[in-house]
Design goal:
Blueprint (H helix, E strand, L loop, with lengths): L13 H13 L5 E2 L8 H13 L1 H4 L11 H11 L1 E5 L10 H14 L3 E2 L1 E3 L6 H10 L4 E5 H4 L9 H10 L3 E4 L12 H10 L5 E3 L7 H10 L4 E3 L6 H6 L7 H6 L4 E2 L11 H9 L5 H16 L3
Parallel strand pairs: 1-2, 2-3, 4-5, 5-6, 6-7, 7-8, 8-9
Helix pairs in contact: 1-13, 5-6, 6-8
Length: 304
Amino acid sequence: MNSAVPVTPEPFSTDEAQRVRAIWSDLDLPGIVDVHTHFMPRPVMDKVWAYFDSVGPLVGREWPITYRADEDVRVSTLRDFGVRAYSSLVYPHKPNMAEWLNGWAHDFAAGHDDCLHTATFYPEESAHTYVSRAIQAGTQVFKCHIQVGDFSPTDSLLDGVWSQIADSQVPVIIHCGSGPAPGTFTGPEPIRELLHRFPSLPLIVAHMGMPEYTAFLDLALEYPNVHLDTTMAFTDFAEEDAPFPADYLPRLADAGEKILFGSDFPNIPYGYTHALEALIRLDLGADWLRDVFYRNGSRLFGIG
């Protein structure tokens, strides 16, 4: 398979969809499982986009939203790409928000059978109760955003949440790395403390733990239920400021069954094709790519 990165096709174009489909077809896969995509209530998505529109001074460069479009167009685009399953990752930044987001995400998944039923939580007295309801309602994946929420994952208000998640084994995609900017509670040490208390937690560390790649990769190799998602990692955009250490590539190969493809669609400053090609150019082999693009996510989420 040619590992050269081609010129990125225009977003939303037939050419782009054909290129994405060619990548997974060449690997004899039935499509892609993308664990890290965002669908949110429109007022919330508008605020997220406004944040990225203004984030230039924070990250030192512009962050254009490549797939800024109406919700139905975004859904259709993922389907045109051959994405077999995706998520509607929502996350609160204040109390009394998570349960409302969970209701919206539940309805979204009910109307889109290729979307993983997604939920979220925040450290508050009601968290134990609404997380219990979400699990009983069929939630397949939780989203936890340590940086945006500005809370510690070891907050005692979350003890009942983590114990339920450990018991149910519903995976949690957790943004806990310090990229694109460090937060009060980001970094590997709070997660190491959390896993010490709840060693069976099914965590998916978003963005490969960027920029603390090595520490989070070590945690994934140490704890059987910890995974990593590739969201934005290895792309030109990420490599400019937070390059993955070349001497850790062999350990990346060893962790092949622990790594899931994630794109951050639609909030990425480049084309979807580039996220796939960035993994291809790591030159870790076709079987590694099959695991990352489809098989690991299919196994974890029971996708036929």
